[in-house]
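Task 17 of the worksheet. Students: predict the tertiary structure of the chain below and write it out as structure tokens. Keep your answer in the requested format; marks are given for formatting as well as content.
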Amino acid sequence: MKHEITSLLQDLISFESTSGHPQLLACADFIEKYYSDTGLIVKRYEKNGVPSVVILTKDTLEPDIMMQGHFDVVVGGNTHYQANVEGDYLYGPGALDMKGSVAAMMVAIRKLAEENPNKTIGLMLNGDEESGGCNSAKYLVEDIGYTTKLLINLDGGYSETISYAEKGIMRLELIAREGAHTPVNMPWLGGNAIDTLIDSYTKLREFLSDKHKATDENNWYTTYNSWELDAHKFQSRTPHTATLKMSLHFVEDLTVQESLTKIQEIIPEVEVKLIMGAERVFVKKTNSTLQKFKSVMEGVLDREVTLVKENGSSDARFFTHMNIPIIITRPAGDDAEGINERVSLTSLEKIAQTLMHFIQNTLNK
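Model answer:
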């Protein structure tokens, strides 16, 4: 199986499947064609130029188990779209994030379909995870209507661990509007948008004062980071608009909308605009399905597997409202999105074996 995964991954990496690039569509075409000699049902979707491919063992919107990943990659890092194998590692853009996992799942569902012809298994491959997921995963769930009883996502943040929690994410813009009608050369009359923005942001920072910097060892904190500041004014007038953009990674048991409302109540003097929101993913560590997957993975790896909480997010967030078990993991590798991005081929094979053993055992019960 390692040879099949390696060969497929080499093909996938050859596509420059970045946002807006024609090769993104070509990569989706390739995935579609990969199943042309099988009895699997392949459905192709596209919204705003973003492709998605869903592979199914039965023609349904409700497979019992759905695997999920994405075939788009970020711009930058390694821009040489050719795989290079050195020992057990395959190097190339997207090798770890996450075309390696896509290849493992693509091979796994072919084999699962042969051995479980009457079971409903799905594989959802999305084309815009790196840019928010709105035209792919969100579209497939909210508009097309895909659901499942169990989601397995291989876009985790830590090698060969199981993520049972991912932080919710909000990218916000704070907008202060004042001073537009202050008379020319009379700034002493007040109404300065910069002052309003600073006062509001200071108040918000006080509310977030216990939000510590996260570490890999102790990361389950809400954290925030500001990344853009701007102000606008008419000639000779006091600044009438000031804006600040910030990110918030939250752990509280709140939806994005609830968190947004809470922040707006804290700083009513400014408009709090949501640029992007990602819901929190959280599954209890004691969840029986999660523990069963952990046991299977430990058997394949022949060692203990750690359950972790992570700072990042994934397309799994679009399934959280279904209140289903969500299992998130990732093969071993390094330098995701970097110049030396690489994935372990042995780990990919073991992840694929874990998927197959777990799904076969689950469906046969």
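Marker's comment: The helical segments are 2-13, 22-34, 95-115, 137-144, 193-207, 256-266, 288-301, 345-363. The CA atoms of residues 83 and 294 lie 31 Å apart.
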